[in-house]
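This section describes the prediction task in plain terms. A model, or a person checking by hand, is given the sequence of a single protein chain and must write out its three-dimensional structure as a string of tokens. No templates, partner chains or ligands are provided. The sample shown here is typical of the held-out split.
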Amino acid sequence: MNGFQEQYAGFLESFGQGRKMVLSTAAHDIVSSRMMSVVRLDGAFYFQTDRALRKYRQLSVNPRAALCIDNIQIEGICAELGAPLAHAAFCAAFRTCFRGSYDAYTALENERLFVLHPTRIERWLYLDGVPYIEIFDLENERYSCEKYTGV
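The expected answer:
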């Protein structure tokens, strides 16, 4: 495992299996954001949505999206995977992390599963009160963590 892979593995471990995150999507110069229940499997992020909703329509036009929580920003490319119930690993993780949402929505006919493959992750770290910007460039397997100086 190289330095990038070690750093990324550490980030994923600290991220955990599931979180409620803000998902931002865009189409035709219109951006929208909403809270989503997101699970992580391996190095990708999964969520489900109804085909009748705005985010589904936006992702159909533009698969680029972003997830955000606290001091973490994740940019990536989404792909639709079909009905959530057809994906056992997702269902197991989603049921564990978000039982209420799993019970309420996962079996609905219009529900669709998406995966976001991250291309860039940026996280602000505060080490002894000093701000740093940590960047994972997944497309080029580059990692950096630099002190933020405001210049």
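For orientation: The CA atoms of residues 18 and 148 lie 29 Å apart.
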